[in-house]
Amino acid sequence: MAMASNHTTDWGDPNPPRDFFEFWHVHREVILVVVISFFSMAYMIYTTLPTRRVINKTPKRDVAATELASIKPAISGDEKSEVPLEALPPGVVARGPRRIKGELRKPEATRESSSSNSGRRTQVLVFYSSLTTTTEKIANDFAQKLSASLVGYAAERKDLFFAPNVLDLAQIDYDEYFISLPKTADATTPIDYFYLFLIPSYNIDTINDNLLEHLQETHHDFRIDTSPLSGLLGYSVFGLGDREGWPTEEEGFCFQAKEVDRWMAKLTGRKRAYPLGMGDKKLDLTDRLSEWMGGVMDVLKLAATTGSLGEGVSGSGDADESDFEYASGDDDDEIVVEEAAAVPKKNGKKKTNIDDVEDLGRIIKSSQAESNGSKEPAPIAIDFTTYGKSNTKRAPQPVKEMVPKTSPTYTALTKQGYSIVGSHSGVKICRWTKSALRGRGSCYKYSFYGIASHQCMETTPSLSCSNKCVFCWRHGTNPVGTTWRWVVDPPEMIFEGVKAGHYQKIKMMRGVPGVRAERFAEAMRIRHCALSLVGEPIFYPHINEFLGMLHAERISSFLVCNAQHPDQLAALKAVTQLYVSIDASNKESLRKIDRPLHRDFWERLQRCLDILREKRFKHRTVFRLTLVKGFNVDDEVEGYADLVERGLPCFVEIKGVTYCGTSTSAGAGLTMANVPFYAEVTEFVTALDKKLKDRGLDYGIAAEHAHSCCVLIASGRFRVDGKWHTRIDYQRFFELLEERGADGDWKPEDYMGPETPEWATWGNGGFDPRDERVDRKGRKIEAS
Ligand SMILES: Cc1cc2nc3c(=O)[nH]c(=O)nc-3n(C[C@H](O)[C@H](O)[C@H](O)COP(=O)(O)O)c2cc1C
Ligand code: SF4
């Protein structure tokens, strides 16, 4: 009976159980239901809060619970265009009990549309530390200049800034600025804060250490959001140091500014508005500072106008921020063995083979609908590469776009980071450009020819090509064809479009950890153009006009072609350096490796070599050999020597194919095993050099870039008094061009540059000593 009564007990039982176990036994079902319901409700409430990281606790540091200091709005909303900058009263900072909370990132909506009634103002705070007063003076002077510049801008744009406040880090309470943002008493005048830091470095104990400790502790304090300053509009740091005592960054030059920059990235959750600047007070402080200030001003105006830092590759607030590295495999025209690029799924089917002529038909069809709706008359198709009989019976076809926006090719290319310009051109920034911006090394073309990688634009006016090379890492994305059968975009449009695309991508690097302000500023002036991205640049019917536009802006041109378009090659006007890719030394090997669409591919290659031979006293001509083990290395040295003898190029670049990824390339069976070791590349180069010498040809091994597995053989024409001069005098090239015109008469020797730096010459590795060596994860590599 007792048992039965226990089972039937409920909240109304007049005989409640006497001990805990009895109670549990009797009420367990009800208790469980209540407990589960409670937790479910709590969870639901928690997950629907606007921000999940609200911590309603006082931070570990004591914060005085005083009234908020009141602040008069600087101006009323309707007066804003006439009222000058007004200094923010020092009492602006909040002193009340603090509710530390994280913030969701603001939507990147432009402020312009709402600025008239938002009444937001931007307050720049210039923090500095100083022991021997250099930075103090600079900070005050800097703030004055900034203020003057903002007054002008505010008058123009009706956006008002408060006058910058200069704050000595030795005098302020860090809690007020670095645990949360200063708050204003007047909620109707919301203020956006922008922090600037001027930090000298000291390897002795100074106030800098307190600041750094504070930033670090705040980031690690579990009671505070890891990015409590994410509401900042932006921040940027400038370091002062002395290279006399601390010559390099590794030896401590500006080390504390770098640290402040790093911790602020974490605390602000990626709000680095402009790259870290650094100046040496005895050498270049004025130049570097004004450069940095110029950049900061531009970003400030943008941020104040739009409420955001604009598009960008975000920096990182996470623990690995200094190790942030990009996925590689996007080096310029490097040939890379990698996983075949997957074209987006269509009807659930993944397409991994290449777009070929049949695919083009499909692309054309898909774009047909688009152009049918257009009222524009279709441009006339140009077929300039095929000289076969024309099919007179075929009905005239409307001309289509090579890469229409709706095509899978477009989607795949943009996913890979290309900006497609018009309907057949592309631009992308290569990993060396990114690397050079961060002082982590430039591409081999810097070592060999003095190309500044951070000022180099990589582009192509034709995404289409006439080969299907087994190692092409654009498999599945680039269209192919033997004839130009597409709409032809005007060169002006391509030129403006690729420049805009390039600059936009550079700007996106602004917040990336490690980007140097100095290089960033330089990168905003393109000096070189590598026409080699993907596809075949001379396929584009207006390539000469396009080159003329580059040169008119004093942008050098390195043009790479695939030795399949002899007529276009012959008609090519001046370029700074002209490349022909030689992917194999004999017909069979070339067929296997390049899988050319032209039936007379070998004859075309031979004709191209003859043209190059003719041009060698006009252009700097280069053979590019890409070594793919198992395809074009073994037993081919003799054949390559024959080709060199035939074309007599100024230079022969020999490069091992690059590996990136794990699987085979487009069914061609390429794996890591096809990537030669550097020792194998050098062995091949030595053998080729010997063969050339045996034939009495004046060539020698001039330079190397072991990092990219690349070696340069040069003609004796570029050896002066026993020293190699493989670099280019770009200034002289443009002078010659401007004096004598694109068809003018001059020789490559006329714009031969200075001596190849010793570190780049054969036997010395080729790594620029100014740069820091890091591995793929960004870890420093010690010099061996
Ligand atoms: C004791 C001492 C230590 C220094 N340590 C470094 C250092 O580690 N790295 C660096 O780049 N500069 C270092 N400097 C150079 C200062 O950062 C540089 O002179 C700076 O301009 C000083 O700014 P201030 O006059 O505002 O204090 C040091 C200078 C002194 C006097
Ligand atoms: S030449 Fe220019 S595009 Fe090519 S790898 Fe170097 S920096 Fe990049």
- By DSSP, the count of extended strands is 23
Q: Give the number of domains.
A: 3
Mass-distribution shape: elongated
Main sheet: strands, sense, barrel:
10 strands, mixed
Bound molecules: flavin mononucleotide, iron/sulfur cluster
Strand order of the largest sheet: 11-12-13-14-15-16-17-18-21-20
Distance between the termini: 88 Å
Helix tally equals 21
Contiguous uncertain segments of 5+ residues:
1-18, 43-117, 313-393, 661-667
Helix content: 25-40%
Please state the CA-atom Rg, rounded to the nearest Å.
Answer: 32 Å
Oligomer: single chain
Mean pLDDT: 75
Quickly give the CATH architecture of the largest domain. Alpha-Beta Barrel
**Which strand-content bin applies to the residues?**
5-15%
Q: Which homologous superfamily in CATH is the superfamily of the largest domain?
A: Aldolase class I
